[in-house]
Every structure is written in C-alpha cells, then in structure tokens.
Design brief:
The structure is a single chain. By secondary structure, this protein is mostly helical. The chain has helices at 2-28, 34-63, 71-87, 90-100. The radius of gyration is 14 Å and the shape is elongated.
Length: 101
C-alpha cells in the first residue's frame, strides 16, 4: 500500500516537472519583456521540484515499488496543459503554479 501511494506522489512530481517546463517555454516564446522573468521563475520552481522527484524515486526504491508505467503519458498530458496555460497568459499560468504547489 505504501508503494502504491508513493507511486502516486511520484507521478505528481513528474507532472510538476512537465508543467513548469512547458509554462517556461510558453513564457519565453512571448514577445512581452516581462515574460522572461516569469520563465526564469518557472524554471527555478522546476529545479526545486527536482529534489522532490528524486526523493520520491528513492522512496519507491526503498519500498521495492516501481514508478508508474504511465509516467510518459502523465508527463505528456501535463506538458500539454502547461503549454496551454502558459499561452493563456501569466495570470492563468501562475494559477496553475498555485494549484500544483
């Protein structure tokens, strides 16, 4: 049971990585100069989440559990959502950051 719960936690961290990466990409593709600052903040948030991703993976290993086989699907879906949110502007993009956290 602990392994299954940690697998869900790990998937959440995989999705956070995808969201932040896509949102930073969308912010950087805008011509608005303020978007570069937003992109840098999103990239920093993604780096912070890297620690959580590593911790959840280590914990899965300790429990003898495996990560989700659907991680590529979850990543792709979260990336798409992040890209859409990022293209909708900083307000929507930052709303996703709040919900992700």
């Amino acid at each position: 049971m602990s392994g299954a719960l940690m697998r869900v936690n790990h998937v959440g961290e995989v999705c956070a990585q995808a969201l932040y990466t896509a949102q930073a990409m969308a912010a950087r593709s805008s011509t608005n100069p303020g978007r570069e600052r937003l992109a840098l903040q999103l990239e920093a948030a993604g780096r912070e989440e890297t620690d959580h991703l590593a911790w959840t993976r280590d914990r899965l290993d300790e429990l003898g559990a495996r990560p989700s086989l659907l991680n590529p699907v979850w990543y792709a879906g979260a990336f798409g959502i992040g890209l859409i949110a990022g293209r909708m502007g900083p307000g929507v993009s930052l709303g996703f950051v709040v919900e992700t956290e």
